[in-house]
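Case study 2.
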Amino acid sequence: MKILAIDTSSKICSVTILENEKILMNLSNDDEKTHSVKLMPMVDKAFSDTKLSLDDIELLACCIGPGSFTGVRIGIATIKAFADVKNIPVIGITSLESLAYNVRDIAKESSLVCSLIDAKNNNVYCGLYQFIKKYSDNNCEHNDSCKLISILAEDIDTTIEKLNETIASNDFNQIIFVGDGSIIYKEKLSSVFKNALFASDDKNLQNGISIGLAGLDKYLLGEYGNSSSISPIYLRKSQAERALEEKIKILPMTLDDIKLIKPNFESDFDRFWNITNLENDFNNPNSSYFIAKLDDEIVGFAGILKICDEANIMNIVTKVDKRHLGIGAKLLDTLITISKNQGLKSITLEVNINNHPAINLYEKFNFKRIGLRKKYYNNTDDAIIMTLFLK
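Prediction:
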């Protein structure tokens, strides 16, 4: 399988072509201000030097962040264009997972890999990973996989506290640090984690090779999609996004709220949702429903149904013209908080297998795929069953 991998999320712009795990071409440029100018010539050179073209590429992989706001968008836009023109499958890889792949060769299954990216002002982006090695059972070959344990965006001291909690609650006997954050805070990390390993200098930089290798592993696990399946991941929101999010208020739903959204329900929130079902769910004594308001306008709603010690998410819906503003994430965070406060053990939901933005949102909140309901939606689309286990 020939893979084109691109990383424009950091000061280094990287273009790599692989054939499975074999590197055919790897180009890089370290002038962050010229990514938009240099990327396409680098792609052209990679194809020219390998005597290949986009027609030969069977998988596209790119970094989706966290990283430079502009840089991440440049890479994603390029990959989306390639995918749409040639109908090539796409995989998005976080910069934290890419760094973890830099130390895959020295990581054991008992190792906790900690990717650290400096986020300035004593803050870091942190990704915790465990590599599960290839194995066979019942004549079935299982490929390498990189298991995400958690992603954090905290100050370094809080990150260290959470690292200690993760190690204490698991059977890791080694921790490996990688990324520029591990260089900046090496002295502090070494004083806390006495037996820690630190990646060599050349492993602390993001590159297209690791993006491609991570993409290959995910492809073999069936974790890929079309151009709409990838979007930027920003653990630290822009100032404009933070200002907007502060204006979004989450409140308990009332009967008056349902009356307000009822006249234009299908056009405002799409035809999939039924107002009668919403009214019935709202009136269930075991349910909890909330609305999102922006400038006194109801722009979303969500609800859970309590069943014994578990919660089932009934819906998370955002008004059609107000999507991609973080409303769904804020509603989901509220449902998780409510479930924890009620002492529930887990939260389960179903999501359309083709609803890639929603799947990405749930996975960002550490929901795990646990099953599949065939033809669950309109007797056509499958539903992925996802669960978040609460501590």
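The chain has a mean pLDDT of 90.
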